[in-house]
User: What shape does this take?
Amino acid sequence: MTRFIIILLSAVFINNYVLSRFLGICPFLGVSKKLNSATGMSLAVIFVMLMATAVTWPIQNYLLTPYDLGYLQTIVFILVIAALVQLVEIVLKRFLPSLHRSLGVYLPLITTNCAVLGVTILNIDEGYTFWEAMVNSLGSGLGFFLAMVMFSGVRSTIEERNIPKSFRGLPVTLIAASITSLAFMGFGGVIENLFG
Assistant: This one.
């Protein structure tokens, strides 16, 4: 049980895919302007990460690895993720049309979100069991959610301030993202020492 807690907390705080590994930056910068959009995107990413791991882990361990088809890993994983994103898009369009409209082009971009693909591949590379991979995916999704929601607050505060003209827009957003990333680096070593 301790190992699951370490994997979960490490994925959320230390190995945060957005703020430490810099994967999934496109939706992080594009959808984090409003809290509703950031929350909706994050929940969709959590769902896709969990389902992608639940499907890709068995494919890798029971099909690709035993039959020496490891070179197909990236292609197969992207196809699985694309199918899951289509499922999410159909559900959102049917049951939450306002959220579907607010996410706009960023929802289909989950297909090419390198954070989702990175989680599925790193679960295999780290040698996680199925349940460890699922916990890591949940933690990674929660870390993505935390980064998105926290950064939407940062961006709304930035928009209320009088920023010099040369820093408005993308420059101040990138500066704020880098400072937020530095804050998360402070968690390094804390999680392991809690249970050491």
